[in-house]
Design brief:
With 362 residues, the protein is an alpha+beta fold. The protein is built from ten helices and eight strands. Strands 1-2-3-4-5 form a five-stranded antiparallel β-sheet. The chain has a three-stranded antiparallel β-sheet with strand order 6-8-7. Strand 7 (344-348) and strand 8 (351-355) form a beta hairpin. The chain starts with 5 loop residues before the first strand and ends in a 7-residue tail after the last strand. Mean pLDDT is 78; it is low at 103-125 and 356-362.
C-alpha cells in the first residue's frame, strides 16, 4: 500500500482482455507449471477482499495509468476487420445473428469494453480512450495509409508466482518480476509459464466451414453438364486464397508475438527477484519522505493547523503544483514529524492542532 501498488481485480482484468492491441493471439497460462498451494494458503491465513479468480496461481499488482500509441499500416489487421464485418453482415442478413443474441440475453454481463474506465480507486476524471481499428471507418484510402491506434497502459506491473514442483523435490523459490508500460490488452505477455499460441477453435471452425462450402460448390460445378472453367477456377482460387490468408495471418501473428515477448523481456522488464523488493523498499522510503516534507512545508508556512486543515492544504498544494489529485496520508506524516521532535501537539479551543514548533515542558 505504501508504494501505491494495487492488486489487479477481476473487473480490471476483464477490461484489459476486452480488446486487442498489438497481440492478436490467444495466450493462456499453463496451470500445470504453476504452483497453486502457496498463494491459496497465504490468502487463507490472510483474507483479502475482491481477490481475482487467478489468485491461487499468481497475483498481479499494478500502479499508474499511461498511454501507448502505435502508428503503422496494419494491412493484415485491416483485412481481418473487413472480413469480420462481412461475416457479421452475413449473419445479420441470414437472421442467424438473432440466435446468438438470444443466447447472450440469457446471461447478462456487464459490458466493460465500451466504458474502458480504470477503477473506482482512480480519480473520477481519469480515463483513457481506446482507439482501435474495429471502431474506425475503413475506406480504400485508409487501407493504403498509416493509422494510429491507442491503448491504455499499466505504468508498473509486478507479477508474483511460484513454479510447480514434484512431490519428491519441492521448489521453494518465489518469482517476483517487475515491468513497466504494459498495454492493458497485451497484459498476457507478462503472465508466467505461458502456453505456445495456436489457432483458436473459432479459426478452425471458420476454416473447416469454408473448406466444406468450397468443396461442395466445386463438386456441384463439376457435375453440371457444361462446367464453366472460370467458375471452377474462381472457386478453387478463393478456397486456396482463404487457406493461405489464414496460414500467413497466423505466421505474422507468431512473429509479432515473439517480438513482443523479446521487447517485454529486454525493454519493459525493470527487475526481478531481490531487485524488485529493493525497488519497492526504495519507493516506500521516498513516499514517506515526500509526505513528511510536504506536511512540514505547510506547517512552516501556516504555523498551526488542525489535522483536517493540514490534510486539505497538502492535497491542494500537490494539485496546484503538479495538477494531480490524491488522498494524502497526513496522519502518518505527522506521526513521523512528532517522533522526530520537529512539531508538537497542542490543544486549542477543543481542537487538536499541529505547529512547526516544539513546546518545552515546564
Amino acid at each position: 500500500d505504501k508504494s501505491n501498488f494495487k492488486l489487479l481485480s477481476d473487473e480490471e482484468n476483464e477490461v484489459a482482455h476486452s480488446g486487442q492491441y498489438l497481440l492478436n493471439l490467444p495466450i493462456k497460462v499453463d496451470e500445470s507449471k504453476v504452483d497453486k498451494t502457496l498463494l491459496s494458503r497465504y490468502f487463507k491465513e490472510h483474507p483479502h477482499d475482491n481477490l481475482p479468480a487467478f489468485a491461487d496461481k499468481y497475483i498481479v499488482f499494478r500502479r499508474g495509468i499511461g498511454i501507448d500509441q502505435t502508428t503503422d499500416y496494419f494491412f493484415m489487421e485491416k483485412v481481418d476487420v473487413i472480413i469480420s464485418r462481412a461475416w457479421r453482415f452475413l449473419l445479420r442478413v441470414t437472421m442467424i445473428e438473432k440466435l446468438f443474441s438470444r443466447k447472450r440475453q440469457l446471461k447478462p454481463k456487464k459490458d466493460t469494453k465500451k466504458t474502458d474506465e480504470v477503477n473506482d480507486e482512480e480519480p473520477a476524471d481519469l480515463f483513457v480512450e481506446r482507439i482501435r481499428l474495429e471502431k474506425m471507418e475503413l475506406s480504400i484510402r485508409n487501407l493504403l495509409r498509416k493509422m494510429t491506434i491507442q491503448e491504455p497502459t499499466f505504468e508498473r506491473i509486478i507479477v508474483v508466482y511460484r513454479r510447480a514442483s514434484k512431490e519428491t523435490k519441492k521448489d521453494r523459490g518465489i518469482f517476483v518480476k517487475h515491468f513497466k508500460n504494459i498495454p492493458m490488452a497485451d497484459m498476457e505477455l507478462v503472465l508466467p509459464e505461458k502456453k505456445n499460441p495456436s489457432l483458436t477453435p473459432m479459426d478452425w471452425v471458420l476454416f473447416l466451414i469454408s473448406a466444406v462450402l468450397g468443396l461442395v460448390t466445386l463438386v456441384g460445378s463439376l457435375e453440371m453438364p457444361k462446367a464453366d472453367i472460370w467458375v471452377v477456377t474462381a472457386i478453387v482460387s478463393g478456397l486456396v486464397g482463404y487457406c493461405a490468408k489464414t496460414y500467413f495471418t497466423f505466421q505474422a501473428n507468431m512473429v509479432t508475438y515473439q517480438n513482443l515477448i523479446t521487447k517485454s523481456m529486454y525493454d519493459k522488464q525493470l527487475d526481478s527477484g531481490k531487485g524488485t523488493l529493493l525497488h519497492l523498499c526504495d519507493d516506500v522510503i521516498q513516499q514517506e519522505v515526500k509526505e513528511v516534507i510536504v506536511s512540514y512545508y505547510i506547517l512552516m508556512e501556516q504555523g498551526k493547523a488542525t489535522i483536517q486543515d493540514l490534510d486539505s492544504r497538502c492535497e491542494q498544494l500537490i494539485k496546484e503544483e503538479f495538477g494531480v489529485e490524491c488522498n494524502f496520508d497526513v496522519v502518518d506524516a505527522v506521526k513521523k514529524l512528532e517522533k522526530l521532535g520537529i512539531v508538537s501537539r497542542v490543544r486549542f479551543a477543543k481542537s487538536l492542532l499541529y505547529g512547526n514548533f516544539k513546546v518545552r515542558s515546564s
